[in-house]
Amino acid sequence: MIVQIQESEYDAILRQAVAVIDRTRAMVATTVCSAIGTTHWEIGKLLHDRKVESRHGSGVVNRLSYDLKQRYPQMGVSPRNLWDMKKFYERFCDSGPKLRQAVAVLPWGHILTLMRKFGEDDNAILYFKMRLPVRNNKIDFAFIDKFMAELEAERLAEPEAYLSVAGFKDYKLTDEEQKALNDYDKIEWTEYNLEKLFGKSTRGKRLKSEDRLPGDLPFVTAGEAEEGVSAFIGNHVTIFNENTTTIDMFGSAKYRNYKYGGDDHVAIVHTENVPKYAAIFITSAIHKASHCGKFDYSKNFYARMQTAIHQFTVCQW
């Protein structure tokens, strides 16, 4: 079935695409590669949700590419790249969290190569093994060094372009920020118990994908993709306050500055009454303490929640 895109619908697509990019520009430089991946994912999702197909949507995508280039001339938003973003979302949207987390940290060019090489074979991508180059029956370390230098240059080029677009390329620290860095080594640190500070954490209830009704409420589950937001729902579920922190089954902590629902794979730490930036700092401290590679599906974070001493290190003022 061919879906005709009306002018008002196109304007909505453009506004949402601009909103996606503007949100991405606000991310800090340390998450720049993941931010670029998130931008591609969300724009791909937007085109998918709007049912923009190659048979009839080329005009829409060409126009969207032109308008986005006017706002972000240094970003890769060519029509071909926009179609690739849609393919990227459609290829991995139903994949497991382990694969999505693995793909999320890859450069865009590598993702496209994997999609072309392995198609729909999730296991082939997840367990892809690289053959080492050899010369005269010996590992060619000279080639590896050259290849790694080129790869490093590629990884550095993406953040450089992003920082330039985001307005951070020539950023200089203020006197106050420089003083904070200079005083960092003077800070004293100690451990605190989360439950004693913020009360008992709470969890939502499981809601299967097929039972989720479309709506506007972000629904948080375990995983790194989309910051753990797996859907926007209209179901009647417990709504958690903004300015709180979630910890998923893998120990990954995320700060939430919006109201949201959550399933039983995330715990909510109630930092509602803590100042915003203090709550963000606390989230980072929790993440550093809990997201340590010890937890997976067979040994998740919640198996220890009742007995573990939920401690994290923060500065003592």
Please describe what this structure looks like:
Helix 1 crosses helix 3. The longest helix is centred in the middle third of the chain and has 26 residues. The protein is 45% helix and 14% strand. The protein is globular, with a radius of gyration of 22 Å. By secondary structure, it is of the alpha+beta class. The C terminus is likely disordered. The strands form four sheets. It has a four-stranded antiparallel beta sheet with strand order 4-10-7-8. A three-stranded mixed beta sheet has the order 6-5-9, with no helix packed on it. The chain has two domains: 120 residues, no CATH class; 129 residues, Alpha-Beta Complex (Adenine-n6-DNA-methyltransferase TaqI, Chain A, domain 2), CATH 3.90.220.20. 24% of the residues are buried.
